[in-house]
Q: What sequence folds into this?
């Protein structure tokens, strides 16, 4: 007898048992939930190791697909409701909107209506912050993050995420929210490294992490809408080591 067990919509053969799909899904969820934290903490260790050795790390399929889809849906809803605003360049107090340099539209997560997906994302980022502090002793104290939507043709020219005289941003994080991204779609994050350029496709679930002070990077124009969450782990402003 063939029956759908609800696992990614694939039919599977459960044989003659009366094992219900509800029970099966409950067990499946328990297994994925109990395995998830280990996989995630292993991933955080790899990120910490990469940051020490080369100042950047890219991990694929890190966050659960369902969470990425929820965050992507929120970002697109904000965009279609015109709740995202053109991003500026330059330090606080001297911001300028120059679409030929930076063409994305953003909104701080703190400034969005609270959502379960947003809270889950912040919890995962807080776990990453704690893991980096444990491994690297870098005293990351807080996290700021915004949704970003690049319309087709928009990019962000070569830059560093840390402004001169403003040493608070330590580690940059980008989580991509774009399902079915194809090689010809463009929109790569280009890291400018000593050994040359390294491109990262903005595929759903990919996490790019790099040191804000040292990694020069840019966003290449895409030929479709490109959604992400971009964030920065910061040190405390009164950290005596920064004076
Ligand atoms: C940024 C940035 C990279 C990306 O917002 O500062 O560099 O791939 N984003 O979206
Ligand atoms: Mn940047």
A:
């Amino acid at each position: 007898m063939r029956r759908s067990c609800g696992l990614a919509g694939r039919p599977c053969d459960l044989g003659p048992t009366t094992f219900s799909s509800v029970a099966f899904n409950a067990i499946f969820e328990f297994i994925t939930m109990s395995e998830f934290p280990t996989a995630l903490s292993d991933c955080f260790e790899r990120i910490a190791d990469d940051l020490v050795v080369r100042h950047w790390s890219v991990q694929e399929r890190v966050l659960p697909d369902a969470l990425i889809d929820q965050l992507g849906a929120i970002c697109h809803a904000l965009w279609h409701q015109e709740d995202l605003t053109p991003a500026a360049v330059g330090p606080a107090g001297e911001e300028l909107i120059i679409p030929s340099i930076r063409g994305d539209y953003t909104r701080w997560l703190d400034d969005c209506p609270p959502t379960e997906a947003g809270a889950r994302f912040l919890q995962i980022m807080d776990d990453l912050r704690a893991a980096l502090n444990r491994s690297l002793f870098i005293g990351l104290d807080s996290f700021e993050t915004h949704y970003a939507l690049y319309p087709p043709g928009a990019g962000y020219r070569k830059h560093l995420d840390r402004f001169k005289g403003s040493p608070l941003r330590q580690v940059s994080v980008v989580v991509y929210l774009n399902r079915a991204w194809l090689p010809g779609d463009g929109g790569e994050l280009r890291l400018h490294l000593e050994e040359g350029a390294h491109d990262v496709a903005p595929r759903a679930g990919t996490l790019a992490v790099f040191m804000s002070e040292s990694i020069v990077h840019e966003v290449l124009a895409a030929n479709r809408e490109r959604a992400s969450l971009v964030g920065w782990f910061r040190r405390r402003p009164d950290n005596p080591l920064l004076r």
